[in-house]
Amino acid sequence: MHLPVAASTLALGLMLACLPADAQTPAAASSPVTTRHPVTTATLAGRVLQLGERDGQCVVQRDAETLPLGIPAPCYFSTGRDYAAQVHVFNGTPIVLIQHAKPSTRTDWNVATDGPICDYAAQAVRDVGGKLEPGMAASGSSPRCDPTEGTDQKNFVYGYDTWPNLKPKKPAAGQPAR
């Protein structure tokens, strides 16, 4: 090899080695979806729920009943610290939250500089008098790319307008009755 070619090859190698790491590595096209604790079975009001899929959508199966949901499959129950499905009881009504995540298609987000982002969907299901009732489905972008991650109670209850087991409260002293 000629000395000038070897020297220029060495110089090019040294320049590449000195570039910042983010200049050498192309930005990831999308965020990976992880399912660290994929839970597809839960017990709600003493009966077993199983998540499934029909025509690309998530469904809840209980005994012979199938409840189609408004979120895509695959889907998973939100989990608690024990990695079992979270069941919240709100105003006497047991509720589970089903979640879905997929890599985001947002073009205004750079995963390399802004961190992970996924398209996220969630829908609660409650048992009222032995009947399953789906809440309103919600979706959006989220830095949560693990649809098995637990969440707090407000995410279980936002999709409902009414609460059948809610007992009316007496107004506080000095407050007019409604």
UniProtKB/TrEMBL annotation:
UniProtKB keywords: Signal
Top-rank lineage group of the source organism: Bacteria
Position of the signal peptide: 1-23
Region (Disordered): 134-178
Record-given protein name: Secreted protein
